[in-house]
Design goal:
There is one protein chain. By secondary structure, the protein is of the alpha/beta class. The chain folds into two domains: 12-167, Rossmann fold, CATH 3.40.50; 189-324, Histidine kinase-like ATPase, C-terminal domain (Heat Shock Protein 90, 2-Layer Sandwich). Helices cover 38% and strands 22% of the residues. It is built from ten helices and twelve strands. The protein has a seven-stranded mixed β-sheet, sandwiched between helices. The longest helix has 21 residues, at 216-236. The N and C termini lie far apart (51 Å).
Length: 328
């Protein structure tokens, strides 16, 4: 492709842009914006305040650029797709939309990184039948191992070379190879539940989370998420299941396992229509929790694991305690 195009009919033109320094980031990103504006497009930039200032200073004007705050999305990768639904909805009229999204990869747990890559890959499927639009994803490759860069590139069908888009040879065309969920570490509280035990599971999860260091509001969020997950598990997973509760240095963890199978990889990721009755359980869970991981396959059943991040002070106390106990 010698020029930037969003496609002839529908779907997402999704590009990966690895850069190695500040100037390369700016030059490649500005070139993308100018291509988009030359084609009459509206540009949506999801970037932190520092990036927004840098880009705005290099643009002759910002009339056709909408800057949005990605802070809420960065907390939970499961909010990535619905956020872009919302942002596109603000500007999509009779002009093509071009997005820029630089996800934050540093400072995340391995589970967060894997889920974020999966959401990047799912973006292609989520927007496969929508009106055509483009998204360019800058990635700071300076000092990164080549395998890390390649793993992120494989979520994008195209590469942006700083001036144009080219096909990516490493894109995952088939099913995405999700990492297996590790087993819980440390003491684990396990509960067998059915319809009669719903209230017990919810309240036990609340007590466990409060004792683990979550604040009152976050305990309430977890109890709501637990109620939704247990109810869904009973309804679709054979009428019963197992709930596991444990704590890491970073978070309070809760996992539900049952014999059901989830076949839709986009479950809970697409905003439900206002007129839809039911089917909102996992949507609510993804917005109540800080991380949601789903593993489901025939013969293996389903595991839904949710994480609630501990406050920084609690994390430091837990890390110190583990060091004192010889586990750090």
């Amino acid at each position: 492709m010698t020029t930037l195009e969003t496609g002839s009919a529908a779907g997402l033109t999704h590009m990966f842009y690895p850069y190695i320094d500040h100037e390369q980031y700016l030059s490649g990103t500005i070139a993308y914006i100018e291509h988009a504006r030359a084609g009459g497009g509206t540009v949506v930039v999801a970037a932190d305040p520092a990036r927004r200032e840098q880009l705005a200073a290099r643009l002759p004007d910002a009339d056709s650029v909408l800057f949005v705050d990605p802070a809420g999305v960065r907390r939970n990768p499961g909010r990535f797709i619905p956020a872009w639904q919302d942002w596109i909805g603000r500007v999509a009229r009779d002009r093509p939309v071009y997005g820029i999204n630089e996800s934050v990869w540093s400072g995340r747990t391995a589970a967060h990184v894997n889920e974020l890559r999966y959401q990047e890959w799912l973006l292609n499927r989520a927007f496969a039948s929508t009106p055509a639009w483009a998204l360019m994803c800058p990635f700071d490759a300076a000092g990164q191992d080549a395998s890390v860069v390649a793993a992120t590139a494989r979520c994008h069908p195209l590469l942006w070379d700083g001036a144009k888009s080219v096909a990516s040879t490493g894109y995952f065309v088939g099913d995405y190879p999700l990492d297996a969920l590790g087993e819980p570490t440390g003491p684990v509280r396990r509960l067998i539940y059915d319809l009669a035990a719903l209230a017990t599971v919810r309240e036990e999860a609340g007590r466990f989370a409060a004792a683990g260091g979550l604040g009152e509001d976050r305990v309430r969020d977890l109890k709501l998420a637990v109620a939704e997950l247990a109810a869904n598990s009973i309804r679709h997973g054979g009428g019963h299941g197992t709930a596991s509760l444990w704590r890491t240095r970073e978070a309070v963890m809760c996992e539900f396992s049952d014999d059901g199978v989830i076949t839709d990889p986009l479950v809970g990721l697409i905003r439900p229509a206002p007129t839809r009755i039911g089917g909102r359980g996992l949507w609510f869970v993804r917005h109540l929790c800080d991380l949601v991981q789903i593993r489901s396959s025939p013969g293996e059943g389903t595991r839904v694991r949710v994480s609630m991040d501990l406050p920084d002070t609690t994390r430091r106390q837990e890390a110190a305690r583990q060091v004192m106990n010889g586990h750090g």
